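## Example record

The block below lists the input lines for one assembly entry, exactly as stored, with component labels intact.
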Amino acid sequence: MHVPDGFLSPQITVPAWIAAAPLWTWAARRNFGASSTESLPVVGSLTALAFVVQGIMIPVPGGTSAHLTGMAILAILYNPGVAFVCESLVLLLQALFSGAGGFTVLGVNALAMGLLGPGAAWLAWRALRGLSGRVAAFAAAYAGMQVATGAVALVLGLQHRLSPAYMPVPLEVTAVATMVPSLTVLGVVEGLYTVATLALLRRARLLDAR
Amino acid sequence: MLAEPRRSQAFLVAWAASIFAVSALADPRALSVATLAALLLFRRGALREARRVLVGVAPFALGLSAASWGWLAVRGEAPPVSPFAALTLRTVLIAFVTFSVLRRVELLRALAPFPTLSRLLVLSLAQVHALRLLATESALGLRSRLPRRPRTRDVLRSSGAITVALLTLSARNARDVGDAMRSRGFH
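Predicted structure tokens for the full assembly:
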């Protein structure tokens, strides 16, 4: 659900950067300081895995794409701050080296896919983990995907509202084009990815190093 | 002439300002002029970067614009083509400028004043590199074990074991890189 560079004007991207910058500083200092030595290997592995799963993108009408994020698992295992920093890194690497997403839209993409989505996943996980670990992980990832996709669709709709000549696709098109695949396919696949990766991490005994 | 890392830092600041400025342009003529200016400014290596943009970015941007235009056309709105052309051109131009500038800067030296960012960037890059190598090796291993070309079912069947190996090695790699950076004064 990356928004590429050029699809959002500075009217939106600059405030998003202003909102994201202090959050990056705070989250990085809080979660990746000297005390994070033990968690870095797992975080690094999951970030790299997220980089790979996010590389498979399908363009959808309205200015974005459909793909997995792999971020719910970081929010579940650590907290939404870790997911925010890791997703921002993935987005930065993609923008700089493969031209996916972009630097001007980094704030928007990071807030939607790195903060709101994983934030929702974390809340869902905390609310449901008493029932069953797998169900809670699946539901958390599904919820996170929907929130992130919805946020991206809303921002693109806002751009159309601000300047139809700049972004000619209205919200009703963007919302349908992004939310239908997200609700029917992507959310389910993200849920399965999260449950499977958690099981694999346990099998590899990597969660002990957390 | 500025010395490194000041030169790269100045380049990055100019790049950030210019791509935000390009992202504000909506008129296809202004975007065309900006594209010509960028091609002139970065004429050394322009062909290589243009090819990279045409292969890696343009099809996706074009696909997005075409899908959006098609959707609106199906709804009977017959939208004008120029805003969609401008969308694609903006995306392509920003990618071209980004790739051209990145080839001319030393990114990690420019980011030296931000040690946490540098450390995370190095770790992530090392992880992505290790993961790519492992995935290639695993694919080659799978191919060598089968008398025929691996099918989707074969790949899916072996994916669990491959991912476990991948995560384990990746974690070890991250630990090594982290230790190496810490021993060199990154905290």
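The longest strand of chain A covers residues 58-60. Chain A has a mean pLDDT of 87.
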